[in-house]
Amino acid sequence: MTEHPTSPERGRPGAGRPPAPADPRGALLRTPDQSSARTSDQSSARAPEQSSTLPGSAALPVQARTGDLTGDMQKTNCGKKGPTGGQDSTGSTDMPSSPSSGSASSPDTGAPTPPSASPASEHSQPSAAEPDPHRPRPAPESLPAQQGAAQERPAGSPGGKERRTGQGLPPGGPMPMRRDGDRLRFVGAATRRIARGIDLDEIVMGLCRATVPTFSDAILVYLRDPLPVGDERPTGPLVLRLRRTDRIPVERDTEGGFLPAVQPEPSDLSAMTAELCEVRPGGALAEVLRGVRPVFADAPAARAALPELLGDDVFVPGGQRAILAPLRGRRRVIGAALFLRRPERLAFEADDLLVAAQLATHSALGIDKAVLYGREAYIADELQRTMLPETLPQPTGVRLASRYLPAAETARVGGDWYDAIPLPGSRVALVVGDVMGHSMTSAAIMGQLRTTAQTLAGLDLPPQEVLHHLDEQAQRLGTDRMATCLYAVYDPVSHRITIANAGHPPPVLLHLGGRAEVLRVPPGAPIGVGGVDFEAVELDAPAGATLLLYTDGLVESRLRDVWTGIEQLRERLSATAQLTGPDHPPPLEALCDEVLDMLGPGDRDDDIALLAARFDGIAPSDVAYWFLEPEDAAPGRARRLARRALSRWGMEELSDSVELLVSEVVTNAVRYTSRPVTLRLLRTDVLRCEVGDDVPQLPRLRQARATDEGGRGLYLVNKLARRWGATRLSTGKVVWFELNRG
Question: What pTM value is reported for the model?
């Protein structure tokens, strides 16, 4: 039986021999070389194969031939009794002796066995148990170390020695790869494992796990620090950092192998070698890295380069038991890998340099791509982080919490956003929106819409007007720029909330007693449609209630429609509120986590933005409000009203400062207004004073000259107040200041 003409062994000596059977554990033993002529092969005896092995025997079924010119060989035949061999009653296999070695002993009992009855004819049909040599064998995913290898020897190896080198096989170690087919299968399995990695650590780990212990007993991977990204030109000297090491476990490495002169603690490779290595320009290590091709450690160039890489106290086994392989990416060398074998294991062969080169090439290209992917992920994360508020404000009368989840780890950016914008009069605008898609383009459009919403909120426009201007802005960005948005304004003084919706899922209000309801707001058309009107509704916002704004990724997926998800959200909020009792609302942060826990494995089809607002409000007893006629007596009346309010609140120590600042601000308002001026005092954690008029021009702080009669009012406000500001309204403006409570 000859080998198939397309075999990778074609053209090599002994290519006509049959393929060696595969070991069930992945290693492939080499059949003995046949240098005799075809006529000698045709007259050789064939030992029948058996489909099952003997109990307690680890030997593999190997086809053997007589007439070997290289010396004596033992023929191992594990199997049932065939047409050309016999088997005794104890289960030992017939072992015919070679002409020079006499009788052989059974591998189990040691008893001599009779020779085979007769050799099989060249044209005889193979037995039913004999495998078809032309049937392709499945390639193993890896070639692991063989267990109990002390009982196994390659066929044709007298005394358990390797034919080519005459060295003994190591006990308990992996069997060597003896044929080119083994190496091809190993390289294929190893490169597939390396290619599975998507980031830097996964690729380096795949290289280590694929090579130890199949190809080497240990590996050290050095990478450039820092790694260049894409076409960047690295600056500074070339520095290699030990990125990862791997080796056969300590319990299997009892013979020592590669250890430093004094073993450190802990006894791992990272502690034995230098973590950083600066490559000297023109040095031996630089020459090896520039050469790109892997070299044996006993080569002259590598012999001088290894101490520079590892340090002087690390012992590297000689005799071609170490390979130094540079890692070259798309543009430049980015590191090096060192493959090591123990002294008692068979040395590397020349063909193993090709294997190391393939592993190094695939790993380096994968590392290059992983670095580029990491840079893109970093840019996406930074873009998304800057598009969303870094921290939420802490307005008076409301507490806020938020969450954002991307659609997937591979899609870190999206078009969902949320925002909380403080407004005049202690009000706050709550915004949540969703641009179609979750890509860099969606994130860019989202950022523009969010900036527009903040600008419109600063003008104190009604919610429906804000959505109208957002719709116009989306149309200016493009005809296919669609988004949904919900804009709400909460007033803690009146305990009311005004909501306008543009095609967004409705909010859910969780009451203090545990009842959750879906607010009925007009759905409206999405932003970007154009030519539609938006409607706003005003609803009660009782103290202790929690308003939940969210995007459709929380309630809609491939497994459920949006209304089913909204109902599940409502039930989850009610169940969570029951845990804390009717008089205590659940903590906001824990409530957000509970809401996100309702997502199942198949419910993450879109990114999610979540904004929760707990309405505390401002009690009516903490608010004082007056109208002042625009006349010369208004500042004096404002001082008297402020003094009475502070006396009622027990804050007499602030009377002097408040009277002075109120008098200055009211004087400025009365000077230019034609309608009544409003004065409001709010007692919260600070004392806040607000003066409103119908003049839209905002006051500016300026330095008055010594001869000026006026212009010092805002200067006093700036010096005495904790904070102050002026906000333009649709009906005029509001000038406000805050003072710390005593």
Answer: 0.61
pLDDT tens by residue, 331-343 = 788 889 999 988 8
Rounded CA-CA distance 616/544 in Å is 6
CA atoms within 13 A on the CB side of 159: 7
Nearest residue to 47 via CA among 5, 101, 6, 104 = 104
Q: Which two tokens stand for residue 549?
A: 């704004």
Residue whose entry in the numeric block shows the structure tokens 């493959």:
339
What's 137's DSSP letter?
P
Q: 243 vs 39, 185, 224, 232, 583, CA distance in Å?
A: 57, 27, 9, 21, 56
What is the edge-to-edge ordering of all strands in the sheet holding 322-328?
276-278, 239-247, 218-224, 333-340, 322-328, 295-296
Q: Supply the pLDDT for residue 299.
A: 86
Neighbours of 32 (CB within 10 A): 22
Residue 231: helix, strand or coil by DSSP? Answer: coil
366-399 pLDDT per residue, tens: 998 888 888 888 887 788 778 888 899 988 899 9
Upstream peptide bond of 112 is cis (omega within 30 degrees of 0): no
SS3 state at 653: helix
Locate all alpha helices (DSSP H) within 482-612, ordered by sequence. Answer: 562-580, 588-596
Q: In what order do the strands lie in the sheet with 398-405?
A: 398-405, 608-615, 546-550, 508-510, 516-518
- Pick out the chain residues at pLDDT < 70: 1-179, 230-231, 236, 249-274, 408-412, 600-604, 704, 706-710, 742
Q: Is 623 exposed, middle or buried (0-12, 13-18, 19+ CB in 10 A)?
A: middle
Q: In angstroms, what CA-CA distances link 126 with 20, 63, 120, 129, 628?
A: 16, 12, 9, 8, 114
